């Protein structure tokens, strides 16, 4: 059981380049998230998808787009990377939103550097 | 005011010590509470959920005080392998709202 799988694990971009971070889960979860983690900031929500076919902005959506391709997959795209987007990105999933005590499961993260 | 606040530490304790972390949250309507553990450069992993009645898992005890809006984690008989960052996570129970503390760093010293 792979859980939540993220690719790539590491990426270096030049300012202005684009890329897509891939995320897939095999737990039949309905809801998926993209977070970024910066030193001293904790995890901050970029976008989430409550269910297949829906996406919503989180706390820090600027500069990002997402696609919920199907129930399993939720991708994060940087159209024109900026140095401020240097961070560690985590994908996460949960069975269903709004259920108490439902727990987040995380992918292993993508370390992104934008030069 | 941040939704969830934690003392970032670091906490440096000798093996065998007991250490406690606290976390406060601002939304009194919050429904679910968790402690996650995060090792350096790795993903957060669930350590334990926190229930109103308090719960224990081996050397780890979690408590929730709704009146004062704080959550605690107690680690007894600390092991070297307990060295990590501990994240307090709160879910308001509506929408997408998981809020993360910045984490408390623990180093257990031989």
List keywords for this structure.
heterodimer, A: 115 residues, mainly beta, 4-stranded antiparallel sheet, 11 strands, B: 110 residues, 0% helix
Write the layout of secondary structure elements.
The complex is a heterodimer of chains A (115) and B (110).
Chain A: E1 4-7, E2 10-13, E3 19-25, E4 31-38, E5 42-49, E6 56-57, E7 64-68, E8 74-78, E9 87-94, E10 105-106, E11 110-114
Parallel strand pairs in A: 2-11
Antiparallel strand pairs in A: 1-3, 3-8, 4-5, 4-9, 5-6, 7-8, 9-10, 9-11
Chain B: E1 4-6, E2 11-14, E3 19-25, E4 32-38, E5 45-50, E6 55-57, E7 60-65, E8 70-75, E9 84-91, E10 98-100, E11 104-109
Parallel strand pairs in B: 2-11
Antiparallel strand pairs in B: 1-3, 3-8, 4-5, 4-9, 6-7, 7-8, 9-10, 9-11
Q: Helix proportion of residues of chain A, in percent?
A: under 10%
Radius of gyration of chain A: 13 Å
Largest interchain contact: A-B, 27 and 24 residues
Q: N-to-C SSE series of chain A?
A: EEEEEEEEEEE
State the low-pLDDT regions of chain A, or none. none
Helix tally of chain B equals 0
The chain-level structural class of chain B is: mainly beta
The number of distinct helices of chain A, counting runs of at least 4 residues, comes to 0
The dominant shape of chain A is: globular
- What string gives the helices and strands of chain B in order? EEEEEEEEEEE
The tally of beta strands of chain A, per DSSP, is 11
The rounded Rg of chain B comes to 13 Å
Please summarize the sheet with the most strands of chain B: 6 strands, mixed
Quick structural overview:
Chain A has 115 residues and is mostly beta strands.
Q: How would you characterize this protein structure?
A:
The complex is a heterodimer of chains A (115) and B (110). With 115 residues, chain A is an all-beta fold. Helices cover 0% and strands 50% of the residues of chain A. Chain A contains no helices and eleven strands. In chain A, strands 2, 4, 5, 6, 9, 10 and 11 form a seven-stranded mixed β-sheet that branches. The radius of gyration of chain A is 13 Å and the shape is globular. Chain A starts with a strand and ends with a strand. In chain A, 37% of the residues are buried. Chain B has 110 residues and is mainly beta. Chain B has strands at 4-6, 11-14, 19-25, 32-38, 45-50, 55-57, 60-65, 70-75, 84-91, 98-100, 104-109. In chain B, the strands form two sheets. In chain B, strands 2, 4, 5, 9, 10 and 11 form a six-stranded mixed β-sheet that branches. A five-stranded antiparallel β-sheet of chain B has the order 1-3-8-7-6, with no helix packed on it. In chain B, strand 6 (55-57) and strand 7 form a beta hairpin. Chain B is globular and about 45 Å long. The model of chain B has no long low-confidence stretch (mean pLDDT 91). The interface between A and B is medium-sized, with 27 and 24 residues.
């Amino acid at each position: 059981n792979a859980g939540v799988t993220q690719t790539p694990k590491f990426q270096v971009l030049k300012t202005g380049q684009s890329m897509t971070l891939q995320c897939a889960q095999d737990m039949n979860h309905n809801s998926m998230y993209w977070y970024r983690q910066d030193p001293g900031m904790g995890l901050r929500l970029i976008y989430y998808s409550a269910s297949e076919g829906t996406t919503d902005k989180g706390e820090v959506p600027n500069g990002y787009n997402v696609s919920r391709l199907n129930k399993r997959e939720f991708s994060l795209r940087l159209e024109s990377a900026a140095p401020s987007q240097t961070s560690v990105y985590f994908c996460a999933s949960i069975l269903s939103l709004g259920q108490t005590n439902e727990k987040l499961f995380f992918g292993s993260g993508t370390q992104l550097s934008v030069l | 005011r941040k939704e969830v606040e934690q003392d970032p530490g670091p906490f440096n304790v000798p093996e065998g010590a007991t250490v406690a972390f606290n976390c406060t949250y601002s939304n009194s309507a919050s429904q679910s509470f968790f402690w996650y553990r995060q090792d350096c450069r790795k993903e957060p992993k669930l350590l334990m959920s926190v229930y109103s009645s308090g719960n224990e898992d081996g050397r780890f005890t979690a408590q929730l005080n709704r009146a004062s809006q704080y959550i605690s984690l107690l680690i007894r008989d600390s092991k070297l392998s307990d060295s990590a960052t501990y994240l307090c996570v709160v879910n308001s129970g509506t929408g997408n709202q998981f809020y993360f503390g910045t984490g408390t760093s623990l180093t257990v010293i031989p």
